Amino acid sequence: MDYHIQQLINGISVGSIYALIALGYTMVYGIIKLINFAHGDVFMVGGFVGLFSTQILEKFLPPVPMFLAALIISMLFSAVLGVLIERLAYRPLRGASRIAVLITAVGMSFLLEYVMMAIVGPQAKGYPGIIAKKTFHLYGEIQIDSNQIMILAATIVLMLVLVYIVHKTKTGKAMRAVSFDMEAARLMGINVDRTISATFAIGSSLAAAAGVIFGMTYSSIDPLMGIMPGLKAFVAAVLGGIGSIPGALVGGLLLGTIETEVSANGFSTWRDGVAFLVLILILIFRPSGIFGKNIREKV
Amino acid sequence: MPILRKLGTFWTFLASSFVIYGVIQLLISTNAIGDVAKTTIIMIGINIILTVSLNLINGITGQFSLGHAGFMSVGAYVSAIMTLDFNVPFPLALLIGGTAAAASGAIIGIPTLRLKGDYLAIATLGFGEIIRIIFLNTEYVGGAAGLSGIPNKTTWLWLFLFTLLSVIMIQNFIRSKHGRACIAIRENEIAAEAMGINTTTYKVIAFMIGAFFAGIAGGLSAHFFYVISPSSFGFMKSFEILLMVVLGGLGSTSGAILGAIVITLLFTALAEMPELRMIIYSASLVLMMIFRPGGLLGTKEVTLSFLKKKEGNPHDIASRSA
User: Fold this and answer.
1) What are A89-116's pLDDT values in tens digits?
2) Which among B137, B159, B172, B204 could disulfide-bond with B45, CB atoms 3.0 to 4.6 Å apart, if both were Cys?
3) For B282, nearest residue in chain A (alpha carbons)
4) The CATH number, out of the four listed (1.10.3470, 3.40.1000, 1.10.760, 1.10.357), of the domain defined by the range A2-130+146-285
């Protein structure tokens, strides 16, 4: 029993990273119905910006403020990157066929990966352990380490900020309106293009935060690290119900837990397969996900 | 050219194909071209089979599939096992591999083809990855290290025959009643259903035919490179095939062939600089979609029909709506 509770804790910390990435997928999909394949690579770029800024800031700041500063720099950088990607690659294709936009997203994803590889080289880079690793014993065999606490705290804070932005600010209201009905929102005087940019900025900065946290947890990052977490975060978004913000969180945590349980029971080589199996089962039996609404197709 | 006009485009196509075959066979047997050029030619042939078959699924039937590398791997593994462990003759092994790929296409297609657009793309991507992970975890086929020591049986003759047969068979399918049903599904699924087309059946048929030829291509590549491993059939491979199809023009068989040739040559030319290659590849993909989303040829076909009297191409959207 203790063992499973331990795996649950581990699963939740992995799942938090998926959840942070999944939020960007779900928000973008909710607004422009695009699977932003480049999102996983924004996560990767975020990780690298975090790494570079810690290397520079190391000399000036103590660990905890340095971690926060690196996190914020990386989030701001990725927000700009996300807006640029949308502006350069997706906006010219507004109104084009879905396949054209999807292929552009795939192209953008490769472009980010290999430009980064040209800059930093294909080898994995070590990530400094910014916060000294401490392990706390909770009850019996169950333990939680400082990294896991940090992941949970960061995820909860970012989620609260996100909920505040979406529900209490004007931008958030515009985002909800555009995702509900783009044309009607435009008629009501909402600047749709700016709202879409804001969505990309928010989603990308959450992915960047996940990138920094991922780097600190697994202590190494490389230019292709965004592919698998990106795809799995998409699975998480579909699992929770794409377009739904609480869905992305629940989907991410659930997927993280399922994966750790599968690995813990001795099937670690099947771990990636299980994520895709979950995806296919969800798509076949409940394509709208846990929190999604059913939409009837009209002629 | 009155003689050619009398013979018709099909026979002209066949005759010119055999001329190409003869020229390349001559170049190979006289050692006029090196190993790199020979590998490139073989790769072009394999890629043509892959793109033409993916074009049937994505371009003609309009079902966005990202799992083509998965079908390719089924064909590669099954045909390799056939020649390695059962001493099956090479062409038969390829057909068995193709049949196995078609069966996996049916298993994947029947549940997922109810999905549309992005969801279908992601579901096929997921299935492609699952196939890869199954091979990765099967000790019988070497697991992560892959299967090695496959006899080198893919000669230019076999490659040429299978490429020609794939192109002709798929093109004939597209131009048949069934092909028109598939195009109707692409244009408007609900309208097609209202016209009495059994959309599910046709989608699964197109999927299975596409998977069959992808399996053949997998078998050909396995018997050329001696070794296959699960990592070479990831979704990167699927995207690569998709890029070729999109570059040539989604919905055009000749476009798919053109895309396969152009990208394979580009890849060989840039083989020295793998990172630059990927940057050029992805940037061209993005620029292509922004400035020429239909691909080089769009849905047009380059045929030899200029030899015949002018007539509209039934697969060209522009001439149909006029």
Assistant:
1) 999 888 777 778 888 888 899 899 999 9
2) B159
3) A107
4) 1.10.3470
User: So what's the ipTM on this one?
Assistant: 0.81
CA–CA distance, B268 with B85 (Å, rounded to integer):
33
Lookup result for tokens 């990855």: B129
Classify strands A142-145 and A125-126 as parallel, antiparallel or unpaired.
unpaired
Whole-number Cα distances in Å, A272 to A130, B145, B236:
29, 18, 16
Residue B294 pLDDT greater than 80, yes or no: no
Give residue-wise pLDDT tens across range B81-112.
Answer: 999 888 889 999 999 999 999 999 999 888 88
Nearest residue in chain A measured CA to CA from B280: A111
Query: Which residues in B have their CB inside 8 Å of a CB on A?
Result: 58, 64, 111-112, 114-115, 117-119, 121-123, 125-127, 129-130, 133-134, 136-137, 190, 239, 242-243, 246, 250, 275-276, 278-279, 281-286, 289-290, 293
pLDDT for the residue numbered B8? 67
CB atoms within 10 A of CB B320: 13
Set of chain B residues whose Cβ sits within 8 Å of the Cβ of A276: 125-127, 129-130, 133
The three-state secondary structure class of B311 is: coil
C-alpha B46/C-alpha A134 separation (Å) is 55
How many residue contacts between A and B have a Cβ separation below 8 Å? Answer: 113
Domain ranges of chain A: 2-130+146-285
Contacts of A238 in chain B (CB under 8 A): 119, 122
Q: Please tell me the distance from the alpha carbon of residue B78 to that of residue B150, in angstroms, as a whole number.
A: 12
CB-CB contact of B46 with B159 (8 Å): yes
Which residues of chain B have a CB within 8 Å of the CB of A111?
A: 279, 282-283, 286
Q: Which of B136, B242, B275 sits opposite A117 (nearest CB)?
A: B275
Q: Is the entire prediction scored with pTM above 0.80?
A: yes
| Closest Cβ–Cβ partner in B118, B129, B246 for A272 | B129
Q: How confident is the model at residue A295 (pLDDT cuts 50, 70, 90)?
A: low
Residue predicted with more confidence, B2 or A199: A199
